[in-house]
Amino acid sequence: MAAEPSPAKRRAENLGSVSARRLSGWLRDYRPYVGVPDELMMPGGGPRDYWLCFLGDFAEYEEGEFDSRFNLATRHIRDTGVSYRIYGEENERSWPINPLPLLLSEAEWAQIATGVEQRATLMEALLRDIYGEASLFGEGDLPAAAITGSTDFVRAMRGVKPPGGRYLQIYAADLGRGPDGRWWVLDDRAQAPSGAGYALENRLVLSRAYPNLYNAMNVQRLAPFFDELRKGLASVAGRSDPRICLLTPGPFSETYFEQAHLARYLGFLLVEGDDLIVRDGRAYVRTVAGLKRADVILRRVDADFIDPLELNSKSRLGVPGLLEAIREGGVAVLNMPGTGVLESKSLLGFLPKLCRRLLGEELKMPNVATWWCGQPSERELVEREINSLAIGPAFNGLGPDGKTSRPRMMADLTSNQRDAFIQRFNDRPGDFVGQEVVRLSTTPVLRDGRLEPAPFVLRVYVASTPNGMRVMPGGFCRTSVHPDVRAISMGEDARTSDVWVIADKPVPRISLLTSADEVKVRRILGNLPSRAADNLFWLGRYLERAEATLRLVRSLCTSLMDSEAAVHSTGETLDRLRQILVAWGAMDEEVVGGRALDAANAALHEREMAGSVIRLVRSARRTAASMRERLSADFWTLLLNLESRLEESAGGVLSEAGILQQVERALQILAALSGLSQENMNRGAGWRFLDMGRRIERGINICQFTRRLADSDATIDDLDLLLDLADSQITYRARYLVGLALVPARDMVMLDPFNTRSLAFQVCEIKAHLADLPSLLDDGMLEQPTRILLPLATEVETEEASRLHAERVLEFEQTLMRLSDAVAERYFLQGANAVPTVKLAALA
Amino acid sequence: MIYWVRHRTTYTYESEVSYARCVLRLTPPSTAAQTLLENAIAITPEPSDRLQRTGPFGEETLTLVIDKPHKVLVIEAVSWVDVHAAPAPDAAASPAWEPVRAAAFASAALGPDSPAAFLYPTSRTPLSPAITDYARASFPPGRPIVEAAIDLMTRIHAEFVYDGEATTVSTSASEAFKVRRGVCQDFAHIMVAGLRGLGLPAAYVSGYLRTNPPPGRPRLQGSDATHAWVSLWCGEAYGWIGFDPTNAILAQNDHITLATGRDYSDVAPIDGITLSPGEQELKVEVDVIPEEELAAEPNADPRSPGRTARRRITV
Question: Which residues of A299-315 are buried (b: 16+ CB within 10 A; e: fewer)?
C-alpha cells in the first residue's frame, strides 16, 4: 500500500457521515470467496481505487434513491427500447440488468484487448486456410476430422473469395478470470455473435440512471466502436452509399429485439429471408419501388439456413441462390457463411500451435485446457481423468446428458445417462472433448442493499474495420445468481452488467459528426421494403378498426345510461348496433340476447373473439413489434400502454360508467397515436402505407354503418347513432338546424369532401397516396390500385345522397375491398412480383 | 463395359411457373472405377442462364434459371460411361475395422474424397443408438472391415422389406429403420447411419443400375430409376468400396456412380425452387443399356419414351 492515501481513498474519507457509514458497511460485509480473484478486492485485501471511487459516489445517493433511479431508467429503456417483453408470448430471452457495472481499469483492459484482438486475427487466418489452401491439414497441424464434424463447416464455401478479403466482420470471445488472475478464453463466438445490442442497452440504462457518476468516472464510450463497425461493413461493398441489411431469422428468434435495435442504431435495413431475392448473381431487397440492390448483408441467420437451395433445404429463413450470389461477388455476406466452424471445441487444444504456425507468435490469452478425443492420446488422457473433467460436445451435437449441448461433469449424470454416454463415447470418441473445469472470478452485485460477489463471464467484441481490428471498449457481462464459480454452471437465469472501462484521463466527448464533405445531402429515406409496407398498412387498418369498435361500444354504453329517453336503447337501433358488433367478430351471437352491459364488456375484452378491441390492439402491437425499428419510441410506448390498460381491466367487473371511462381513455390513446403519425412521422412511403391502411379501413367502416343505419327505412335513432359513429354530431347540428333527416345525414358521412370522416374524404386521401407511390410500369400506364380507385373517386364525387341506397353503398364498400387486395398484390410480399417460393419437387 | 444412360425428368405443374432456379447433378464423374465419355443435358423450356461448376463433393453441377412462364419442365441427361471396376476385394484379408476408424479420424485430407468428410451424422442420417446397435452385431472386435460390411449389407437385405409405399423421399434413416421397410434410398441411409454410428467413414452414392441383366441373371431391384448405395472407406490400401444393401452385392460393373455425398441431400439429381402457387407432378425415366445391346433395344431410341418409374425418382 502506498504511504500517501490515494485520491479515491481521500474522497471516501470525506463522505458525509450517512454515506460513509453505508460505504463502510458495504465493504465490511463484502466476503469474496477464498481462492477466487475478485474485481473489487485486491488479492492482498482492500478495495481497488476505481471501485472505491465509484462506490463512494454511489453511496452518496439517498437511501432508496439509486433504486428509484435505476428502476426508472430500466423501465424507460425497456418500454421504448430493446427487449420489452409482454405477457410472456414472445420467446425473447430477457436479461435483467445489474444496478452495478463491471469496472475494469484501462491497464487491465489493454491486456484483454490485445489478447482478444490477437485471437480474432488468428481466427481470420485459420478461416483463410480452412476455406482456402487447407495447408494446415496436409502438414499435420490439424486433423481434418477436427472440423468436418461441425455443421458450420460449409464445404460449398471452399475456394470462394470472401468480400474485402475477410471472413469475419465481428468476432467475440467469452472470457473468465482464472484463479491466477489471468483472463482465459472460455468460448469463441464467430458465427454471428449476439449481445452487442444488449451491451448498448445496458450502457443506455446505466448512463441514464447515474449520469454524474458515469461522466465523472471517465468511462470509455461505445459509440465509436459501432461507427467503425458500420464503416467496416460499408467498406466491402462495391459502391459508395451501399445498402446494408441485417438479415434476421425473424420475430421468433431469441434475440430478435436486439437485432432490431442494432439495425436501427446502425441505420441498417432489417430484413428477413423473404425480403431478399437473388437475380443474375446479385441479391436484391423487395421494396415498394421494385427490387433494389442489397450490397452488404450482416448475417444473424446461421449458415446452414441461409440458402435452402444449396444448404438445409428445410430452411424457411434463407434466400435461395444466396451462395451463388456470394460466389459471383454479387453480394457481401458477413460473417461469411462457414465462420461458425470456429466455435467447435475440438479446435481449442490446437490453437497454441496454430498461433505459432499462422501468426508466428505465442497465444497471448490462453483458452481453457481442452482435449479433443478424436486423437488417441488425448482420448486416453480424458478417460483417465474423466471424473475431474467437464465433458462436452466437440461440435454442435449433444453433450454427455444426451439431451442438451451443455458440458457436464460425470458426477452430475444419472447412472442411465452415464451408461449411454460411455457407449457413445466408445463408439465415437471424436464427438467429445474433455475440458479443465474453469473457476470464474467474481464481481460485486447489489442484492437487498448489500454487496455480494457474483461469478461472471465477459463477452468481448472485435470488429474488422478499414483501420484494422477494433475492440469494443466494454462488453456483455453475465453474472450468475448462484454462488458456484465453476464456469459450466452459468445457468439460464443469469443477469447482465454494463462494462465500464475506466480511463486514467478524462474521455473526450466524441462527436460522431462526420466531416461535412463526406456526406451527400439526401431527402429520400431510402426504399421501403415490401414487408414493412405490408406491416404498416395493416397496423393502420387494425388501429382504425379498433377505434371504430370502440365507438360502437361507447354508443352501446351511452344508450344504456342516457336518462332522457334512452334514445338508442329502443329496440331496432340497439339491435343494429349489436349486429354490427357480431358481424365484426367483436362478440358472440350468444351475448347479443343478454344484457347490453355484458355485450359491451365482451366487445372490449373478450380474448376469444378476433374482432374484440383487446384482440385488435394486440394484433396492432404484434404488427408494430415486427418493425419496431421504424416506429418512434413514443408510438410504441403508447401502443403498449393501450394494450396493458385493456389487459388490466379485462378481468374485472365493470359498470356502464367504468366501461365508458375505459373506452374514452382508449380512444384518447388512439387519437394520440394518430396525432403522432400525422405530425411526427416522416412523409415517406412508410407513412403513406400506414395512412392508406387507416383510410381504406375507415372508408369500409363508414359504408357498413351507412348501409345499416341510413337506408330508406332509417329512424331518427338510427341516424343519431350514425352521426355518433362518424363523429359528426357537432358538424351536423351546426349545419342543419332543422334536426335529423336522412339525405343530409347520408351526404355528410358519405359524400361531403370536407368531413374528415366521410367516405369522400378517405377516397380523396387515398388518391393522393397512390399518386405519390412509385410506379413499376415504365410504359406510362396506370397501376392496378389506381385503376380501381379513380372510377370510385369519380362516382363518389358525382353521386347524390338521395340515391344512395344500401346496394349502392355496398358497391362502394366492395370496391374498397378490391382496392385493398390490389394494394397488397402490387406492393406486398404476396404480390405477383414476389410469389412465395415453392420447392421444385419432393426430391430433396 | 460402356453404357448408354438416359435420365429424363418431367415436372408438370398445376399452375404456371414464372421462375425456377435449379441445381442439377446429372453428370457422372470420372473415377478410378469409371470414365465419363460423354454427357449432354437438354432442358425445355430453354433456361435463361446456365452455370456449370464443381460442387462441394466434387460433383459437376449445372445451375439453371428459367424465367419463361411454363407448365411443363423436361430435363433430359444422356451420358456414355465406361465402367471398369476393380475386381472384388479379398474381404478376409482386409484390415480390422478399429484401426480404419482411427485412421479416418487422423486423416490429413480435407478434400471431398477424404474419409474425414464422411464421419459425422447428418439430418437424414442422424446418430441413432438403435441403428448403431444393429450394425454392431456385424462388427465384433477385430473383424476385417470388408467382411463386416458385407455381413451388415446382407443382413439389411435379408431383414428389411423392399416396399415403395412405406417411405417417402424425405424419410430419415431412423424412421425407415423403425418400420423395417423402404427402398434403396432408405437402405443406403440406414447402412450409412449404422457405419457412422460405429465411427466409420461411410458415404451415400446415387447412380444407376443396368436396365436388363446379363443372360441368366435376375433383374436387379432399382434398375428402372436412379439407384442408391453405400461407399465405405476401408483403409488406405483398400480405399472406397461400394456396398449395395438393396441387392446385397458389391457395387461393381453393373453400377454407375452419379454423385457421392453424406446423404441424399448432397446428391439429389435435381434440386430447385420455383415461384409457383400450385401442385406439381413428377415423372422420372431411366434407361441404362450396354453399348453392344443398344441397337437391339427399342426403348433406346431417343425419340421414344423410356421405361417409367412414376412414383419417385430413387428406388
Answer: bbbbbbbbbbbbbbbeb
Could you tell me if A554 and A670 are in contact, meaning their C-beta atoms sit under 8 angstroms apart? no
The nearest alpha carbon in chain A to B170 belongs to A844
pTM of the predicted model, to two decimals? 0.87
Q: Please report whether residue A517 resides in a domain.
A: no
Nearest to A394 by CA among A367, A441, A428, A420: A428
Contact B246, B187 (CB under 8 A): yes
Taking the Cβ of residue A422 and every Cβ of chain B, the question of whether any pair is shorter than 8 Å is answered with no
On the 0-12 / 13-18 / 19+ scale of CB atoms within 10 A, A170 is buried
* Interface check A842 vs B, CB under 8 A: yes
Check whether residue A718 and residue A753 sit in a common domain: yes
Shortest CA gap A425–chain B (Å):
10
- Coil, strand or helix: which one is A332? strand
Element (H, E) at B257: strand B255-261
Interchain pair B197, A837: CB under 8 A: no
Interchain CB distance below 8 Å, B123 and A312? yes
Residue A288 lies in a domain: yes
Residue with cell 466491402: A236
Q: Given the C-alpha cell 363508414, which residue does it identify?
A: A702
For B126, the closest chain A residue by CA position comes to A397
Q: By the CB < 8 Å criterion, does A377 face chain B?
A: no
CB contact under 8 A, A839 and B276: no
Is residue B193 situated within a structural domain? yes
Chain centroid, CA A613 distance in Å: 26
C-alpha cell belonging to residue A485: 464459480
User: Which residues 313-372 of A have a C-beta within 8 angstroms of B?
Assistant: 313-314, 320-321, 324, 327
> Which amino acid would we find at residue A34?
V
Instruction: Tell me the Cα Rg of chain A.
Output: 32
A707, A810: one domain: yes
The bridge status of strand B19-27 relative to strand B60-66 is antiparallel
CA distance B201 to B261: 11
Instruction: Tell whether A397 is within 8 A of chain B (Cβ).
Output: yes
Name the residue facing B273 among A139, A155, A837 (closest C-beta).
Answer: A837
User: Cell numbers at residue A632, please?
Assistant: 418512434
Domain that holds residue B27: 2-83+268-300
How many separate domains does chain A show? Answer: 5
Check residue A14 and give its pLDDT. 72
Which residue type, as a one-letter code, is found at position B199?
Answer: G
How high is the ipTM of this complex?
Answer: 0.90
Do both B275 and B137 map to the same domain? no
Q: Do A568 and A423 have their domain in common?
A: no
| Number of C-beta neighbours around residue A771 at 10 A | 10
Q: Which long-range contacts (CB under 8 A, 24 or more apart) does B218-222 make?
A: B220/B247, B220/B254, B221/B162, B221/B184, B221/B246, B221/B247, B221/B315, B222/B183, B222/B184, B222/B246, B222/B247, B222/B315
Please write the tens of the pLDDT for every residue from A729-781: 999 999 888 889 999 999 999 999 999 999 999 999 999 999 988 887 777 78
Q: What single-letter DSSP state applies at residue A751? A: I
A87 domain residue, yes or no? no
* Judgement on whether residues A466 and A559 belong to the same structural domain of the protein: no
- Please judge whether B116 and A144 are an interchain contact, meaning their C-beta atoms are less than 8 angstroms apart: yes
Q: Which of A449, A473, A505 is the last residue of a domain?
A: A505
Under 8 Å between Cβ of A176 and A168: no
- Quote the CA–CA distance of A665 and A657 in Å, as a whole number: 12
Report the C-alpha gap between A110 and A116 in whole angstroms: 10
Q: Which residue of chain B has the CA closest to A278?
A: B21
Which residues of chain A fall short of a pLDDT of 70? 1-13, 76-95, 485, 487-493, 508-526, 560-570, 591-594, 830-844
**A668 and A634 part of one domain:** yes
Specify whether B60 is located in the same domain as B183.
no
* Residue A307 placed within a domain: yes
The backbone region for B279, taken as left when phi is positive above 0, alpha when psi lies in -120 to 50, beta otherwise, is beta
- Asked if A359 and A366 touch (Cβ cutoff 8 Å), the reply is no
Distance from CA of A321 to the nearest CA of B (A): 8
